[in-house]
């Protein structure tokens, strides 16, 4: 394949434009937030992200390189087809459910990150434990899409994969570093526009290529391969449901999602943003579905690609850039490449910012340096943006099974964080003992189920499992959902059991080493009258005082929005935020 100077120039121009928008957004909003809350402004954008920008940035976070490439691949692969392209419907339903049930309680209580309610209810230790799967999910996802971008660029313009990955990561890290959520949000608007325009321009050219059969015919009839509509074998129904639930429910507890929810100007806006993004995800999946169908309808021996076809060459995961390269004019393929690059960067920057936000606030600030100044937190965020960006780049370049690691970590988000989020928001009475027990049970059940992408043999062989070509057993039983439900009910049962044992006197208070039942009960029932009767405080000490601008674990969650919240109308909430 020849080196394409025009393609390289097009990519450079596109990257410089994205970088310029990111730096402009950072400059435009550099004075947002007072001296005392600059870190919060970087994490949640001053809570003034409007509907237009918010809808674009939330959609762009989901419509990433994995979303676009993965949807096209699923439609193309014989035997799977559109029936197995679950991401568009799964993620759209995830956003709808998030808007209906999770956006309003999270936004109305004024949290800053997804981990805040966990640390508020379960303590800093549990927050640290939940940070691990959340961090793994964000980091491995960023690494996986950087890896996909490098391969995509190398297919079309034939430059070194490592160089393309490093440059892409540097651009995304740089504008995230200087502008935080503002830069990410404004660049998402440009990137989503490029994705939409670039892919839709490519589709008519690819569809009109002489080697492409009518996709309406190949949808239901076998021409070059099995029909691209696909089918679900009766033996695979439970696997399909397990994966669908993982996408739908496991797509909710991500910091990248809640960062947009918490940055919206009101609780109602947070819900509307979720619904807009759900619609956007469906619309943005359409060109990827069509490109996958075109790939399945192409006689590849009649193109410059030649024989064998991409499936035989084990290049099915690259079907989208292959279609752009061999079925479109050169200038169109370069424009489509810009769309794919935009898709990757729009997800990668979100993941890097999400990981650094959780670390700076929930680990560094709330666990170790509760009295740290706001300036210190801002610098911690900047340093971790760079470190996490560099780590994701290194994994993309060095790890041979980045996608396998991401699949496993996304499973842990579904199995561990989702049931914990349900409990902390909707189940009254859960405590740290139940949370730890649920965490461990879910983790053990997931790991013992095996992972083919990492060549991990299962320790528990569920009904219907079978060996693949590498003699690694594949589970047909929906064991991931079983692990999630086990984690959920374990949390509830152990929490109520611990509460009963301590409150009934069966266990002495000194055994409440996590201060999750006895000490918490005492704090909840300690009022001013009790304090006065104890003779250790005088009445004038109860007079209201101006609080220090310190950030203790308890005061950091005392947000005026949580107490003043009456109505979720935009007008009221905008007043509260100010």
TrEMBL record:
GO BP: acetylcholine biosynthetic process; neuromuscular synaptic transmission; synaptic transmission, cholinergic
Gene Ontology CC: one annotated term: presynaptic membrane
Spans traversing the lipid bilayer: 6-27, 48-68, 80-103, 129-157, 163-182, 189-207, 237-257, 269-298, 318-344, 377-399, 405-427, 439-462, 482-502
GO molecular function, one term: choline:sodium symporter activity
Role noted for this protein: High-affinity Na(+)-coupled choline transmembrane symporter. Functions as an electrogenic, voltage-dependent transporter with variable charge/choline stoichiometry. Choline uptake and choline-induced current is also Cl(-)-dependent where Cl(-) is likely a regulatory ion rather than cotransported ion. Plays a critical role in acetylcholine (ACh) synthesis by taking up the substrate choline from the synaptic cleft into the presynaptic nerve terminals after neurotransmitter release.
UniProt source species: Falco tinnunculus
Reactions catalysed: choline(out) + n Na(+)(out) = choline(in) + n Na(+)(in)
Cell location: Presynaptic cell membrane
Membrane topology: Multi-pass membrane protein
InterPro entries in alphabetical order: Choline_transporter (IPR052244), Na/Glc_symporter_sf (IPR038377), Na/solute_symporter (IPR001734)
Alphabetized UniProt keyword annotations: Glycoprotein, Ion transport, Membrane, Neurotransmitter biosynthesis, Sodium, Sodium transport, Symport, Transmembrane, Transmembrane helix, Transport
Complex and partners: Homooligomerizes at cell surface. Interacts with SEC14L1; may regulate SLC5A7.
Superkingdom of source: Eukaryota
UniProt entry tagged with the keyword Translocase: no
The protein's name in its UniProt record: High affinity choline transporter 1
Similarity remark: Belongs to the sodium:solute symporter (SSF) (TC 2.A.21) family.
